[in-house]
Design brief:
three-stranded antiparallel sheet, globular, binds zinc ion, eight-stranded mixed sheet, mainly beta, single chain
């Protein structure tokens, strides 16, 4: 399995605590997304996420339910407090995108890339190392993941 180094376990939970999850190790990459969809789902200026291999995620308590768009990309929420916890992206069954704001140690996940700056609110900066007007091109990912693995930011 792909691993970013440390095998530390990062615990996360929804607002009410009914759903507890844990992610093992360092993420493959961290992101901020300024897209309109993320803005609406987070009720905020942008979303923060940490991309992990799917098998690095453990649901330790509760049962997440599908929310958001209910489409091929599955957004998982706590069914009680409706907090958005993670996403299983369309066509990428081996990956899970965890909302890094939900981690107990959320400040340890600063965004390395930011996406959809074309839709960002003018008064907001996410402080990411790399900015993309939309999503990074598919062929940019190997290099971005390799650079993130070395990043100490
Ligand atoms: Zn909850
Ligand atoms: Zn987004």
């Amino acid at each position: 399995m792909i691993s970013g180094g440390t095998d530390a376990v990062h615990e996360a939970s929804c607002r009410c605590g009914r759903v507890q999850i844990a992610a093992r190790g360092r993420p493959l990459i961290t992101m901020a997304c300024h897209c309109t969809g993320c803005r609406k789902m987070t009720s905020s200026a942008f979303s923060l996420s940490a991309l992990y291999p799917a098998d690095a995620l453990t649901i330790t308590s509760g049962e997440p339910v599908i929310g958001g768009l209910h489409g091929p990309t599955r957004h998982y929420f706590c069914g009680w407090c409706m907090s958005w916890l993670f996403t299983r992206p369309e066509g990428m069954d081996d990956l899970v995108n965890i909302r890094s704001a939900m981690f107990d140690d959320a400040p340890a996940f600063p965004p390395y890339v930011e996406t959809f700056t074309s839709e960002s609110m003018p008064f907001v900066t996410a402080g990411a190392e790399h900015s993309f007007e939309r999503f990074p091109p598919q062929d940019a990912f190997p290099e971005l993941l390799a650079a993130y693995a070395q990043w100490t930011g």
